Amino acid sequence: MKTFVTSLTLVLALGPVAGAILPATGQMTGDVRGINADSNNKLLCGDKASTFKVLGDLSASRRAQVRFGVGGQGRSSLGTATPDFTDDLPALWDTAWLLPLATGPTIETYLAGRQNEGFDAVMFSVGDYNGQNSALGNGTTPFRAAKPSGGGCDHQVFDITTPRDAAFAHIDHIVTQLNGLGMTAAILPMTNGGSDCYVWTLTDVTTENRAHSYGSYIGHRYKHHLNIIWVVGGDTCSPSTHPTATLLTQNFVRGLRDAGAFQRVTWHPGTDECTVTSTGSSSSWLGPDGQWLDFNMMQQYNTVTGGMKAAVRAVTSLGKPAGVGEFGYEDGFGNTLHILRNNAYQSYLSKAAFVGWGRQTAGFDSCCTTNFAGSTGSTGAVQMRIARDVVVNRGWLSYGTDESFINSSAGAVTGMIRSNVAAMVYLATSSSTATLDMSRFNGAATITVTRLDPATGATRDLGEFATSGQQVFDTGGLTDALILIGEPMPPTR
Question: Helix, strand, or coil here: 355?
Answer without folding.
Answer: strand
